[in-house]
Amino acid sequence: MAKNQRSSGTTTVRNGSRNSQPESGRLAGSRETQSRTSRAELEKKICERAYILWEKRGRAHGFDRQDWIEAEAQIKREFRIS
């Protein structure tokens, strides 16, 4: 099955054909994929921030959960996520 990719309002199928009007199922699927991607990106930012906090702590072990919670809080504040 070919994977669909959206760009500029058109849907491109890997075999090169174009469809200017995405099917409603594709549109709903795109929103779901964007939501998952956003969560993945958010988690990546939290992970990177937790690593920075760990480094600032002098790379002391045993604070990973505390660093993650603090990083999560900081990122959520930055992106205004409740």
Describe the structure.
The chain has 82 residues and is an alpha+beta fold. The protein has one domain. 59% of the residues lie in helices and 12% in strands. It has two helices and three strands.
CA gyration radius, whole angstroms = 19 Å
The domain tally reads: 1
* Average pLDDT number: 73
Q: How far apart, in Å, are the first and last alpha carbons? A: 38 Å
Descriptive labels:
elongated, 3 strands, alpha+beta
List the topology elements.
Blueprint: E1 4-7, E2 10-13, E3 18-19, H1 24-56, H2 64-78
Antiparallel strand pairs: 1-2, 2-3
Helix pairs in contact: 1-2
Produce a short descriptive summary.
This protein is α+β, with helices and mostly antiparallel strands.
